[in-house]
Structures are given as structure tokens and as C-alpha cells.
Amino acid sequence: MGRIFEVRKATMFARWDRMAKQFTRIGKEIVIAVKAGGPDPATNPALRRCFQNARSVGMPKDRVEAAIKRAQGKDTSNYEEILYEGYAPHGVALLVETATDNHVRTVANVKSHFNKGNGALGNSGSVSFQFKKMGVFKLKPEGLNIDDLELELIDFGLEELGESNDDNGNPIIVLRCAFVDFGSLQKALEDKGLNPISAELEWIPTTTVPVTDEQAEDVSKLIERLEQDEDVNKVFHNMG
Q1: Do the Cβ atoms of 33 and 50 come closer than 8 Å?
Q2: In sequence order, what are the residues at sequence separation of 6 or more whose Cβ sits closer than 8 angstroms to the Cβ of residue 119?
Q3: Beta strand 80-87 pairing with 198-205
Q4: How would you label 143-158 residue by residue, b for 16+ Cβ within 10 Å and e otherwise?
Q5: How confident is the model at residue 119 (pLDDT cuts 50, 70, 90)?
Q6: 70 confidence band (pLDDT: 50, 70, 90)
Q7: Cα–Cα distance between 137 and 186 in angstroms, integer?
Q8: What average pLDDT does range 139-157 have in this prediction?
């Protein structure tokens, strides 16, 4: 058990402060989850994850229900999840997760963002080898014994458990597991009656690139440009 540092997160993810963008992202994820696994959260772990994240950002119930109805409608856009890879200035690797109903538009926009931000869009596999896709659960620490929790969850795929802070400086517990163990750890938390603040699949860097504050600002500008694109869900980086 240790402290998990979320690499320069406070300066990188300004988009998460924009509530409308959060709702749009989660709405797309709900549509994708329902189309893939049906509208019943009891049998659809991906949809349960979406519900947890909707609650964490205060997404109104009617917005959630509307997204489910859209997913079941015949005229709903078919969103495709596409991962783009590239480099920001100063050799920082970026992974850009998108959900789009028009991949031609999306790739053109993403390429333009990279070019204008002095970065370079790469080919598939050019960056992702520097990251590990993991399930990331965040819990409130109240009433939890961290050491006991770690021992209880190891058999369900837990790889890392540590303390961190959210964007507002509040203490949280961060749990990480391999991508293939996401469902197992999610169910274990549910069985223990623990409701995560959020449950996400994230790309965690295996190595980081040290940068100065000025260089970090250059990278931050490109990330913010990407995150403002309506087709972009998340951007991950390996900036140290």
C-alpha cells in the first residue's frame, strides 16, 4: 500500500470541470454499454460502471434515462470507440480516447489538434506500448481500513492500492487492477457494499518523461485543445 500520484492531473484535466462535457461523455458511454450488453445493469457491468460515474458527477437521473432510451431507439447514432496515439511537444506520449459516429471527421480533427499544438499524430502501436490499460476505482476513505481492504481484494485482481487526492484536494483511496480483472474487482466491491466515487478504464504510463514547468505548459495546451473536441472522451499522457 502506498501513495498513488496521478501525474500532473490537476493541470491536465481542465475539461472535467465542465459539467456539460462530462454529461456528454457519460451519455455516449451509456449508449455504447446498452448496445453492447443490454439495458439491465444487473447483467451489464459496463452499464453499472456508467451509472457510478454518472452519480459521481451529479448527472441527473432523467439524462441517464434519456441516454438509455436513445440507445434502444432505431435512429440512434452508432458510436465507435477509437484510440489515437501520438506525441506532444518534448517527447511526451499521448493516448486519445474518442467515441464518434463519424471517424473521418474525428481523425481529421485530432490530427489538426496535434499539428496546431506542435505535436505529431502517430500510427497504431506507436505510443500505447508505453502504457498499461487498467481498471481504476476511487473510494472515499471514511470507515475503511486500507490494509484490511488490500488483503481482502488481492484475490479479486487488485494490483495497486494507494492514497491520493481528488481535484478539490479531498483524500481518496485509489485501487487499480488489470483490464481483464475489472469486472471481478467491480463485483467484489459491490458485494462488500462499497460504492466507488468513480470506476474507469485508464491508460497508466509504465514510464514517464520528466519535463520542466514551461514544457508542461506546452503539453497542457495541446491536451486541453484535444479535450475540448466533442468526439474526445479522455486524454492520457506520460509526463512526469
Answers
A1: yes
A2: 86, 87, 88, 89, 94, 113, 222
A3: unpaired
A4: eeeeeebbeebeebbb
A5: very high
A6: confident
A7: 8
A8: 94
Copy the grid coordinates of residue 80: 465507435
CA Rg value for the chain: 18
Q: What is the 3-state secondary structure (H, E, C) of the chain?
A: CEECCCCCHHHHCHHHHCHHHHHHHHHHHHHHHHHHHCCCCCCCHHHHHHHHHHHHCCCCHHHHHHHHHHHHCCCCCCCEEEEEEEECHHHCEEEEEEEECCHHHHHHHHHHHHHHCCCEECCCCCCHHHEEEEEEEEECCCCCCHHHHHHHHHHHCEEEEEEEECCCCCEEEEEEEEHHHHHHHHHHHHHCCCCCCEEEEEEEECCCECCCHHHHHHHHHHHHHHHCCCCEEEEEECEC
Say which residue the cell 468526439 belongs to. Answer: 231
Q: What is the pLDDT of residues 19-63, one digit of tens each?
A: 677 888 899 999 999 988 999 988 998 899 899 889 888 899 999
Contacts of 217 (CB under 8 A, 6+ apart): none
Cβ contact 237:162 at 8 Å: no
- If one counts every other C-beta atom within 10 angstroms of the C-beta of residue 170, the result is 11
Q: Which three cell numbers stand for residue 115?
A: 499539428
Distance CA 174, CA 163 (A): 6
> What is the per-residue pLDDT across 157-174, written as a single tens digit (0 to 9) for each?
999 999 888 877 889 999
Q: What CA–CA distance (Å, rounded) separates 129 from 184? A: 25
Instruction: Find the helix packing angle between 45-56 and 182-191, rounded to 10°.
Output: 70
| Surface-to-core class of residue 204, CB atoms within 10 Å of its CB (0-12 exposed, 13-18 middle, 19+ buried) | middle
